Amino acid sequence: MPNIKSAKKRVRSNARKADINTLVRSSMKTSIKNCEKAVVSGNKEEAANKLNIALQRVDKACTSGLIHKNKAARLKSRLTKSVNKMN
User: Fold this and answer.
1) Which of 4, 24, 48, 72 has the fewest CB neighbours in a 10 Å radius?
2) Domain spans, the chain
3) Is the pTM of this model over 0.70?
4) pLDDT of res. 86
5) If you average pLDDT over residues 19-27, what whole number do you get?
6) CATH 2.60.40.1120 corresponds to the domain 5-84
7) Does residue 1 carry a pLDDT above 90?
């Protein structure tokens, strides 16, 4: 446990940021999985809606620095390609 006041504050702020990062990352992963499930089920409208949500969540994770921009581009490309491939 830190003794210095600024170190104590850093522990508190790091805990808050870790909670927010966990929330953003898990919501991104969940939205990606939901989009993939919609693609597998074959419902094109639902897949398109889930795709929009997933792309927003991936962008949010990228802008907050949770994932690298190339990973974000790769995820978005794969999801978009899978939705566009549907008949």
Assistant:
1) 4
2) 5-84
3) yes
4) 85
5) 97
6) no
7) no
